[in-house]
Amino acid sequence: MIIRDEGILGLWSGAAPTVMRNGTNQAAMFTAKNAFDVLLWKKHEGDGRVLLPWQSMISGFLAGTASPVCTGPFDVVKTRLMAQSRGVDGQMKYKGMIHAIRTIYAEEGLLALWKGLLPRLMRIPPGQAIVWTVADQVIGLYERLAAWQESMRLVWSYMLYGPSNSA
């Protein structure tokens, strides 16, 4: 039905804003998480510290709030492009991502590009709080295991080869 109505390229309707949304989402999420870790807990990437679960949860929740705010326009455009159908004149309302942004802005105003933000804010931040809590604890476990392995390597090297070859 899509191929018949829109042609083969109709299968990729909304692909450009989806890529933009996902790329922006990941950039915003990781940047915000690291920024909140530093700002709130003085935790820097690679410093060997592991946040307490409740600290990770707060940073993750706040990062989960930042990403939908940054990606809202791409999400609205993606949804509009994917859901549109031909009008009575046989034409599509939106010709592409840029045209959709301009049309939505001109017809509905700037805030229309963030329609649906509240439901996204009700869903994404709690999920990211859980994801980052688990991720930080798993990374901390891995880092502690790696440090333990290195210490065991040094102990065995010392025991087998003596103090001169243990490094």
UniProtKB/TrEMBL annotation:
InterPro entries: MCP_dom_sf, MCP_transmembrane, TXTP-like
KW Membrane (keyword) present: yes
Intracellular or extracellular location(s): Mitochondrion membrane
GO cellular component: mitochondrial membrane; mitochondrion
This protein's name: Uncharacterized protein
Organism: Prunus persica
PROSITE patterns, alphabetized: SOLCAR
Top-level taxonomic group: Eukaryota
Gene Ontology biological process terms, A to Z: fumarate transport; succinate transport
Similarity-based family: Belongs to the mitochondrial carrier (TC 2.A.29) family.
Membrane topology (UniProt): Multi-pass membrane protein
GO molecular function: succinate:fumarate antiporter activity
Signal peptide stretch: none
Keywords, alphabetical: Membrane, Mitochondrion, Repeat, Transmembrane, Transmembrane helix, Transport
Pfam families for the chain: Mito_carr
